[in-house]
Design brief:
This protein has 256 residues and is mainly α. The chain is built from 12 helices and no strands. It has 2 domains: 33-156, no CATH class; 176-256, Tetratricopeptide repeat domain (Serine Threonine Protein Phosphatase 5, Tetratricopeptide repeat, Alpha Horseshoe). The two termini are 35 Å apart.
């Protein structure tokens, strides 16, 4: 939503709290599980805001700091550990996501020598502890997927079958079209672009630019260049950052 709209909502909420004299208090222990999910979601959104906003990298570090605090306070919550692992593993690749000129570098082209091995090691250790608990949740499964990517010395050595299996589990606990889209991408690496495209075309995500970017890439790989160029153009028109728009426009020109 527009920032002005959100600002108005915050002002109204503050006025309501003041008028109703709602006190600040630490939640009771039995109240924490019900409140945990939105807290984890906010921390994850905060990290992604920093990841996609080139002028806001400090948001990534702040999200990791908050996740570490939460992990220390809630040692018995596997999803808290899963979120921390997910952020650490994602952060390990952040420096390799952009070139010096500000252009985007996709996963398959990233210099893995620039990945932060200390963060990878910490994140993978947390993932292993989560696996031993055998209480899988969305953040733990996403962390495991990122750990599988980090295990591969090259893009070609990625264990895509393992990643598909993890996405199968993630889709079972979080049956959303976005998860289904990411699962389809992984299936494309195992079964080929035609199989992935058939899955992508079933999804109701017309206003989600990664769907059109994914379709564009799959169509390009299938040699359907005219359709790919159209999909690249549509994705570029919806992309939120200059780097993503430029990357998609280049893909569209290459498909003509």
């Amino acid at each position: 939503m527009p920032e002005a709209t959100l600002a108005q909502r915050l002002v109204r909420a503050k006025r309501k709290i003041k008028a109703a004299r709602i006190p600040y208090r630490v939640p009771e222990v039995h109240e924490l599980p019900g409140r945990l999910r939105p807290v984890l979601a906010v921390i994850y959104l905060l990290y992604n805001a920093g990841l996609t906003g080139p002028t806001e990298p400090d948001l990534c570090l702040e999200a990791i700091r908050l996740a570490r605090i939460l992990a220390m306070l809630m040692l018995d919550e596997p999803e808290v550990a899963g979120l921390l692992a997910l952020l650490l593993l994602t952060e390990s690749r952040r420096a390799s996501r952009m070139r010096a000129d500000g252009s985007l570098v996709v996963l398959g082209e990233q210099d893995r020598g620039r990945w932060d091995q200390a963060l990878i090691g910490e994140g993978q250790a947390i993932v292993r502890r989560c696996l031993r608990r055998n209480q899988p949740g969305p953040y733990q499964l996403q962390a495991a997927i990122n750990a599988a990517h980090a295990d591969a010395a090259t893009f070609e050595q990625t264990d895509w079958s393992q990643i598909v299996a993890l996405y199968d589990q993630l889709l079972a606990v979080t049956p959303t079209p976005v998860v289904a889209l990411n699962r389809a991408i992984a299936i494309g690496e195992v079964q080929g672009p035609a199989a992935a495209l058939a899955l992508v075309d079933e999804l109701d995500l017309d206003n989600y630019y990664p769907l059109h970017a994914t379709r564009a890439d799959l169509l390009r790989r299938l040699g359907r260049n005219s359709e790919a160029a159209t999909a690249y153009q549509r994705a570029a028109a919806m992309a939120p950052t200059d780097a993503e728009r430029d990357f998609l426009r280049l893909g569209g020109r290459a498909s003509r």
